[in-house]
Design brief:
The complex is a heterodimer of chains A (516) and B (231). By secondary structure, chain A is mainly α. Chain A contains 22 helices and no strands. Chain A starts with 5 loop residues before the first helix and ends in an 8-residue tail after the last helix. Chain B has helices spanning 40-48, 90-101, 106-116, 132-144, 162-179, 190-196, 214-219, 224-230; strands at residues 2-11, 14-24, 29-33, 55-60, 63-64, 75-78, 150-154, 182-187, 199-204, 207-212. Chain B folds into two domains: 2-74 and 150-230, Rossmann fold; 84-148, no CATH class. Chain B is globular. By secondary structure, chain B is an alpha/beta fold. The chains are: A mainly alpha (516), B alpha/beta (231). At the A-B interface, helix 18 and helix 19 of A face strand 6 and helix 2 of B.
């Protein structure tokens, strides 16, 4: 005797409709369009796919290797030693990671490095150092030191211990960090569009160019399929690797840190200061050059081509509020469904909701312009911008609320039911108060993501609905020192807004940034 | 009066309860005694409506309540791990059932319920700050505060150390008797079952094997297992 539970239907409907219409349906349209293009086999399509795909692949691989080399000294220092300013150093090293990609791109233009592969790789390293430092050091600092001591007693030199014991034990964390960095650089868009010009195009940039500049939607769709295959391949490799190399050993409960002495002290000092200074150079250049002129005032003047640039800041804030509300409501409802039902339905739902995370923002934006002409043409409305931002942010909201909801034992809800609470009141009195705190963190993430989002926005934002990132890009693509100065000034404003929100999150819950 | 008639409960296609029948008269305290895994907790959950019965019926005062959802049954259940609400104060926990019933003077009733278990003035305390024994008493007060028709206690003293248990066995029984409630106490401990109830129901492998007073069971055990289990 099974009754239809209308309450559950009401909770599940908004996320199902939202994800279904704004994500699954456009993805299907892209697949149909791209596969028909590939089956026609138009001349030159294959060669182009291979050329762009190859560049995307090797720059991502090289960026990943270089990021590990650059992150090694600081990772070693914060994993082994407890020193004054350790936490501060880690927080500062994380700053580039939370910056919007257009800000990172603009900062390297401010260094005078544009239109080169070197600039692209440097920007990728700059952005991703924190991923390696945080992911690897979490594990490294908790390795039981007795294992290393045992190896020493058995006759291993310090180098042998590092190579044969420490590095081997760190493999899962290294694989995790490598896949994250690889995915970020494989799907890199803003940085390459700004620093690569037309000479260097990844799949993302090529999708954008074909779709927005040349209006060749079928070719763009074919590129998007290659992109999806690449991302799925990386994720598949990572999950297989994790299964094969899962080494279990007893981790120390807390971090195992010594005070640095003698030569180690000098090493820690150099590693920490060297990394931080290197990371500070592009940003300080950006800030100082943005003040070399009356660029900030110029942001408020009406420009015949781009309008009043400061208007973009207002647009961004309005969109960010809308996207945050949308992502938080849909995300919390989705988390309720995922945690409230056990079994196939909930697992399928969980997986579908995580897909936007693996799909690039460019594919999401591209899907909007391919598919959202049905049942009514939505492509001209400005509200597509917050819808796209919400889609990017929903996985983060779900990820930050599901663990909290799961931590509520079933008995707690049952106790409320026995005491006379209807299913709706159980949700309101138990789930909602408990989830709202984690929901705040998710909402703040959504806000930051919306402020800096560029990939999807570049497809759906109209000139009248420009956001800060798209305005920065328009200013950068225009010749002239004043335009460039205004782009730098607007980048500093965006960096400041982002930093303010991230600091607020950090106050609510420190360390949340460490879990990707 | 509660009547459980030929109840079968199946969870994940495994039979947990088989043909269970049990009657609890008004004002009576019945202890369901049996080894762990014998289905005692499931019996309470079925009576509370938290699990569905495959076959059989549950009646209260002669009327079937099989189709009444949990929150409208008006029963009380004290969970094994207490299941206190972590985001509420002691007072909010105890007042939850009263709030759900939409009553007035919740504050006064909460204070009264706390006085039954000797926790006057604890209303504004946080749940996490309580000791194990205090948590047990808050859970008891929360269960009793809405004055439920039937009180069910699932291993009410299971999580506590031995000294505290001996003290609270007497206290809990006194609280139940003063309120003149109808109650079912689930336990795996023979001493506890005898000290807290008027009548015993022995449970094994999802079935009630025998019911009666301790003396009756000792004098005329249904089988070898009963004789050994209560000896």
């Amino acid at each position: 005797m099974r009754r239809v539970r209308w309450g559950w239907v009401a909770v599940a409907a908004p996320p199902v409709i939202f994800i279904g219409y704004f994500f699954v349906y456009p993805l299907v349209r892209i697949l149909v369009l791209g596969l028909s293009e590939l089956s026609i086999g138009a001349s030159g399509v294959e060669a182009r796919l291979i050329r762009v795909g190859w560049f995307t692949l090797w720059q991502a691989a090289v960026s990943t290797v270089l990021t590990f080399i650059a992150a090694a000294p600081l990772t070693w220092a914060v994993s082994s030693y407890d020193f004054k300013g350790r936490r501060l150093a880690m927080a500062l090293a994380t700053v580039p990671f939370v910056l919007p990609t257009v800000v990172v791109g603009t900062a390297f233009v401010a260094l005078g490095w544009q239109e080169s592969i070197g600039a692209i790789l440097a920007a990728h390293v700059f952005f991703n150092v924190a991923v390696v430092v945080r992911t690897v050091s979490t594990l490294w600092s908790r390795i039981d030191p007795r294992m290393q001591e045992a190896a020493r007693v058995l006759g291993a030199s310090e180098w042998d211990v590092f190579r044969r014991i420490t590095l081997r034990l760190l493999r899962p964390a290294i694989a995790a960090a490598a896949s994250i960095v690889f995915l970020f650089t494989f799907t890199s868009f803003g940085v390459i569009l700004i620093l690569g010009g037309f000479r260097f195009a990844t799949l993302e940039v090529e999708i954008y160019r074909q779709a927005v500049t040349l209006f060749d939607l079928p070719l763009a769709a074919a590129l998007a399929i290659v992109q999806l295959l690449g991302v799925s391949g990386a994720l598949y490799w990572y999950s297989r690797y994790q299964e094969r190399t899962a080494v279990s050993w007893t981790l120390e409960r807390g971090a195992n840190l010594r005070r640095p002495k003698g030569r180690a002290r000098t090493g820690v000092l150099f590693a920490t200061l060297g990394t931080l200074i290197a990371l500070a150079i592009p940003l300080s250049m950006l800030v100082s050059r943005s003040f070399a002129g009356t660029y900030y005032q110029a942001l408020f003047r009406d420009d015949p081509v781009v309008g009043v640039p400061a208007q973009a800041a207002l647009n961004s804030l309005v969109f960010a509020v809308a996207a945050t509300l949308l992502a938080t409501i849909v995300g919390i409802l989705a988390a309720t469904v995922i945690t409230g039902h056990r079994g196939e339905l909930s697992r399928w739902f969980d997986l579908t909701l995580m897909l936007p995370l693996g799909t690039s923002a460019v594919t999401i934006g591209f899907g909007f312009i391919v598919a959202l002409d049905w049942p009514i043409d939505l492509r001209a409305t400005r509200w597509l911008v917050p819808a796209a931002h919400a889609l990017v942010a929903i996985p983060f909201v779900v990820r930050s609320t599901v663990p909290t909801l799961r931590s509520v034992p079933a008995e707690t809800r049952e106790a409320a039911r026995v005491l006379g609470a209807s299913p709706f009141r159980v949700w309101r009195e138990i789930d909602l108060p408990i989830v709202s705190r984690a929901g705040m963190v998710g909402a703040a993430f959504a806000f930051v993501i919306s402020l800096g989002e560029f990939g999807a926005t570049s497809f759906v934002a109209r000139p009248a609905s420009a956001t800060i990132p798209t305005m920065i890009f328009r200013l950068l693509s225009r010749p002239g020192q004043t335009s460039f100065g205004m782009a730098m000034a607007l980048s500093v404003v965006l960096a400041g807004l982002t930093a303010a929100v991230v600091l607020a999150i950090d106050r609510v819950r420190f360390g949340e940034l460490g879990s990707f | 009066m509660l009547q459980v008639e030929n109840l079968d409960v199946v969870i994940d296609s495994k039979p947990i309860l088989e043909n269970v029948s049990l009657t609890v008269a008004d004002g009576e305290i019945v202890a369901v005694l049996g080894p762990s895994g014998s289905g005692k907790s499931t019996l309470l959950r079925a009576i509370a409506g938290l699990v569905e019965a495959a076959t059989g019926d549950i009646r209260w005062d002669g009327r079937s309540i099989a189709n009444v959802p949990t929150h409208r049954r008006g029963f009380g259940l004290m969970f094994q791990g207490y299941a206190l609400f972590p985001h509420m104060t002691v007072g909010e926990n105890v007042g939850f059932g009263l709030k759900m019933a939409g009553g007035d003077d919740i504050a006064d009733q909460v204070e009264e319920a706390l006085s039954w278990v000797g926790l006057e003035g604890f209303g504004s305390r946080q749940v996490e700050s309580l000791s194990g024994g205090e948590q047990q008493r808050v859970a008891l007060a929360r269960t009793l505060a809405p004055r439920p028709d039937l009180v069910m206690l699932d291993e009410p003293l299971g999580a506590l150390d031995r000294n505290l248990r001996q003290k609270l066995v007497t206290e809990t029984r006194e609280v139940l008797e003063e309120r003149d409630v109808t109650a079912i106490v689930v336990t795996h401990d023979r001493e506890e079952a005898v000290a807290m109830s008027n009548r015993l129901a022995l449970m094994r492998a999802g079935t009630i094997v025998q019911t009666g007073l301790l003396d009756e069971l000792l004098a005329d055990p249904a089988d070898q297992w009963v004789a050994e289990f209560i000896a």
